Amino acid sequence: MTQMTSLELVRSTAATIGGLGARYMLHPETAAVGTEAGYENGWAWYFTGRGGVLGDVDASVVAAAFGFFGEPMVRMMWETGLKTEGARAAGARYAAACAAFGRKRLQGTAGLERFNELAEKVMHSVDGSGLSLFVALRAEPAPSDAAGRAYWNLCLLREWRGSEHVVAVRASGLTPAQAILTGYPDPATGVKEASRRGFGDGHPDASPLQARRKQAEELTDALQASGYDVLTGEERAEMAALVDVIRDALDANA
Question: Which residues of the chain have pLDDT under 70?
Answer without folding.
Answer: 1
